[in-house]
Each structure stands twice: as C-alpha cells, then as structure tokens.
C-alpha cells in the first residue's frame, strides 16, 4: 500500500510539475551571440563590389534656403534640381564599413553627424566646410571629419568620389 501511495504521489507530482511548466510564460528569445573579435587568425573579410549595398541620396536647397535630403526610395521623388550621392557600403564585419561615395556637381551635401570618419578623395575636387575649417580637396587628399561638427561638401566637377571609414576613437 505504501508503494502504491508513493507511486501515485510521484505520478501526481510529475503531472503537477508538467502542468506548472506548461503554464510558465515563454522565455524571451536569446539575443544572437556577439560576433567573435577579429584577430590575426581570423579570416580577413573580403567584400566584392557586387556584394556592396547601394544607397542613393538626393540633396538640394529649397526656395527658403533650407537644406533638404531624401534617402533610398524617397530619393527618386526628389526635385529635378536635386544633386545625387550614390553610396556603396562594404560591410567588413564587427560593425565596420568602408563606404565609397560619389557626389554629383552642384548642391551642397551634408554627411550625417556621428562618429569621426577618415576620408580619402579618389576623384574630383570638393569644397569642404568642417566646423570652422574651409578647404578645397582633390584626388589624393585626405581629411578627418569630426563626428559632431557641422560639415558641408560641394563637388566642383562633374562628379567626385571619396572613400570613408569610421575613425578610431580619440
């Protein structure tokens, strides 16, 4: 009788436990694991131009003098007088990107504020305003855009091309 009572108790406690588990709220899905840090033994990320993501940006100054910008699909609906930037984004892993930016001649372009960026000009001539600094740069020149600074780029030729990547923190 004790054995039967013990068996029934175990069966009932197992059923109660299973019922409790069925009633427990579902756990939130686990966050994806962080990518492993890149080391000397890592496979070097190689991104072909055909694998880069393209983003179009239209930019113009409206009748009131206000700087305007439209990105992605919205760029197609920009005014006819809008200048265009074509951005090719190469994802190199661990949140690092290399970007190739092509500007058309004309309207001033303002890059997004954020972290510092290292820039190398590969084609054309660009008038820059970076904070309080004004300069003209051409193919072969390089500069650092400090993230929170105001910045304005104006392409002075038919097209200008530069490559940029995030700079190390100062």
What attributes does this structure have?
3-stranded antiparallel beta sheet, globular, 13% helix, 170 residues, mainly beta, 7-stranded antiparallel beta sheet
Summarize the structure.
By secondary structure, the protein is mostly beta strands.
Structure write-up:
The chain has 170 residues and is mainly beta. The protein has a domain at 49-166: Jelly Rolls (Sandwich). The chain is built from 1 helix and 10 strands, in the order αββββββββββ. The protein has one helix at residues 2-23; strands at 53-61, 67-71, 83-91, 97-104, 117-123, 125-130, 133-138, 142-145, 151-155, 159-166. The chain has a 7-stranded antiparallel β-sheet with strand order 2-1-3-4-10-5-8, with no helix packed on it. Strands 7-6-9 form a 3-stranded antiparallel β-sheet, with no helix packed on it. The longest helix is centred in the first third of the chain and has 22 residues, at 2-23. The chain is globular and about 55 Å long. It starts with a helix and ends with a strand. The model is unreliable at 1-22 (pLDDT under 50).
């Amino acid at each position: 009788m004790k054995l039967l009572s013990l068996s029934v108790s175990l069966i009932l406690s197992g059923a109660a436990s299973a019922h409790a588990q069925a009633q427990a709220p579902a756990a939130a899905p686990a966050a994806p694991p962080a990518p492993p840090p890149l080391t000397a033994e890592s496979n070097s990320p190689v991104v072909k131009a055909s694998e880069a993501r393209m983003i179009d940006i239209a930019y113009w100054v409206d009748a009131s003098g206000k700087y305007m910008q439209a990105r992605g699909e919205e760029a197609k609906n920009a005014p006819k007088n809008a200048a265009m930037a074509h951005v090719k984004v190469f994802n190199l892993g661990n949140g690092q990107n290399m970007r190739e930016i092509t500007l058309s001649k004309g309207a001033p372009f303002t890059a997004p504020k954020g972290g510092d960026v290292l820039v190398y000009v590969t084609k054309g001539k660009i008038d820059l305003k970076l904070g309080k600094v004004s300069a003209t740069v051409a193919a072969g020149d390089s500069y650092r855009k400090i993230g929170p600074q105001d910045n304005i780029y104006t392409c002075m030729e038919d097209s200008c091309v530069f490559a940029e990547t995030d700079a190390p923190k100062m």
